[in-house]
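Q: I have 166 residues here and want to know how they pack in 3D. Can you give me a structure?
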Amino acid sequence: MHSFESHIRSVPNFPKEGIVFKDITPLLQERFSEVIEAMSQNIDWSQVDYVVGIEARGFILGAAMAQLKGKGFIPMRKKGKLPPPVIAETYQLEYGTDTLEMIMEQKPARVVLVDDVLATGGTLRAAASLCAKNKLEVKAMSLLINLTFLNKFKEEGLPVVSVLNY
C-alpha cells in the first residue's frame, strides 16, 4: 500500500473560511507516477474510449492516465474557455456556483471521469450530467481523494474509484 497521505498538505480556511483545502502539489511533485498508477487501477479499461479530465487538476491526472492507458483525452473546462459548439452544466459548490463546459461530441463513447478531490459531489455530479447530455457514458469516476464524510457516492452505487478516503 502507498503512503500518499504524508505528502498532502491541509490548508485551513482556503479558499474561504471553514474549508480545509487538500493541497496535492507536494504529492504530485514527489510521487506523480505512483499516483497515476493507483488512480488507474480497478477500472475496466477495455470498456473505456476516453478519459475526461475536469479543470484544472483533473487535467493533470486525467491526461497522465490517458497516456498510461493509451486512451484519448477530453477536457472539461470552466465556462468560456472552449470554442463553440459547447454544452454546459451549472452547479453548486461548497462555496458558490460554477459552470462546466465540453465541446459537443459527434458520436457516443464510454469515458472515465477524473478529478482530484470529491467533496460534496457538486462538480462530479455536474460533470456526469454533462457527459450524459453529450452522449458520453461514464464507466468510472477516478479520484485521488474522496472526502467520504461529505458525500454518499459509494452508498448510491456510483462507479467511484478513489485512492485516498477520508
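Q: Anything worth noting?
A: Residues 44-165 form a domain with the Rossmann fold fold (CATH 3.40.50.2020). The chain is about 25% helix and 40% strand.
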